[in-house]
Amino acid sequence: MRTRRISTATAFAVLFSSVVLVGGSAGTAAADSSRILPATSLGDIVADGVHQRVFISDPEAGQILATDYSGKVVRVLGELPGVNGLELSADSGTLYAGVAASDHIVAIDTATLTESARYDIGLGTRPTHPALAGGKLWFGYGAATEGNIGSLDLSREEPVVTLDQEPNRTWYSAPVLASSPGAPDKLAAAEEGSSPAELAVYDVASGTAERTAQLRSDASNVSDIAVSPDGTQLVVASGAPYFHQVYRTSDLRAEQGYTSKHYPNAVDIAPNGTVAAGIAGWYDPDVYIYPKGASKTVPVRTYDFPNTGTHSGSDLLEDAGLAWAPDGSRLFAVSVNSEGTRSFRVLTDPTRSVATLSISAPAKATRAKALTVKGSVKASVALPAGTPVTVTRTDAESPKGKSLGTVKTDAKGAFTFKDTPSAGGKVTYKATYAGSAKHTAASGSASVTVSRDAVSLKLNRNKALYAYNTNVSFTATLGKTYKNRVVELWADPFGADKPKKLVKKAKVNSKGNLSVTVNMKRDTTVTAVFAGDSRYAAKTVKSTAYAKVNASLKLSKHYKTAKIGKTSYAYYSKKKNPDFTTNMTYHKGRKHLLTLQLNYQGTWYDAGQQYFALGTSGKSIVTLEGPHETGYKMRVRTSYVNGSSGDSVNSTTHSAWKYYIFTK
């Protein structure tokens, strides 16, 4: 056999062999919101409750960022080289900033966010951390080996700067200062970055700094200090020891510290006495909250920053990077990731212990039989016995949930209840604790697979074979159910180019039947789906019916047609090459098989097979070249062979045999 081109659109390929073709509980609370902060460093952070502003100093960039309470920058105050410590006036009208590199203390109007005054402290003084006490603005100043404390009296017509308020030269470099409105004449100081750390307390009621206590503590590398609202305690955050230290301001005697974690680096105390203790910890919570009068060993709440960089650990809290909103409703923090990107974080509900609610139920249960559900509510601050927990059940009959009432916890926070599910399938029990002034809300859920009765669903026509383009009615028959009588019928013709489609969705008739007519141009799988109801399980059945192709073969170039016995033969001269024309349903890449047979002594024998490509019109002409033997009965047919003809979207189909004979 050979092929020849009959048009530019039809090509013939020759194959000489057959082809076989052959997917309830919460952990440590995280920051409630965050925003990228356009800062290159952090010096200090303070919050203004009157104007709902947060001020953040950036020493490296020489600027102060003014943000709203969400961290959105509303103003950048520049030309402040080396700006570090910040102090807010009692009426929140003025922000004071130590600008070390220019030897100034700058006053900023918090209403207009503009610089209102600039006070020259003296050449080379390098003032850093201002603090208001005793009617004056105090500040640490001095480079290495020149540390001291100075004051700025703003009550006079002309501001008066007084340096060398610490005549004993206690400070190697400029100390960090802290004060509290509750003790207006008390000033605390600490030396940053030294080991061991120097601490001191001063009485400034007279207008001069009179040291009342001094301690060379066992702390090292102090990053931040804070004085309690009543002025009785000094809290220190230092790299070591690994907890936040507490000292009496009267004599700097150590008291029970706040047991945070490794590398304390920040502390701030809210006006109501709540302590926020921060650490530089990659793998531990970053912030620990201790309400006034509560245990110093168990925080009421912790916050663990996420990892926004490339390091394996979380983002780190910046040194001195904590500030309370004056009303204690939220805590502001500045963190930095391994790429040097800083984030402004707003931590809400800081004084409420995070409650976690766990609930468990049997994995499986029998419908209409009682089952037991257990749970517990826990928090770092224990909940009292009798705490109410509301319970709901969601199932097929109550998709929006049905209240099962309220259960109460025991002394250990545990609760239990029984229920008898009337619906089968997935049944979910949700327990909710509403929260309190001391605890956050919490909820949890557990699901049970409740048994349902089996349903009868049948679909006809499975394995039936049809001629090409036949309209076939498929009927699904649904047996007894509870409420749902809807069946879906899907048709999925073979081949990736024909997706599965929903062809009908409706209630079955009184006999339980639902029918759909499918035009069979390809092998097709019809699927019947019953979604189930509250008492009967879902069920899916399939029926695959098969479709042939249209296939015909025509002989041409013969000189006559005559019967041999009862069979019609085409007669060819042995010098004439017959043309075999195949017409077949087209599919991309489809080939047809020509099969030749020869009759010898009454038996038909194979004389050769070969595949040829179909043209896009579904037509193929193949010429059988000589030499041709005369006197032998021969026959030929064309076939589509599922898989071997280049695709598998139809069932194997053979044309009728065409008979021919060669003569002299």
UniProtKB/TrEMBL annotation:
<dbReference type="InterPro" id="IPR015943">
    <property type="entry name" value="WD40/YVTN_repeat-like_dom_sf"/>
</dbReference>
<dbReference type="InterPro" id="IPR011044">
    <property type="entry name" value="Quino_amine_DH_bsu"/>
</dbReference>
<keyword id="KW-0732">Signal</keyword>
<feature type="signal peptide">
    <location>
        <begin position="1"/>
        <end position="22"/>
    </location>
</feature>
<protein>
    <submittedName>
        <fullName>Ig-like domain repeat protein</fullName>
    </submittedName>
</protein>
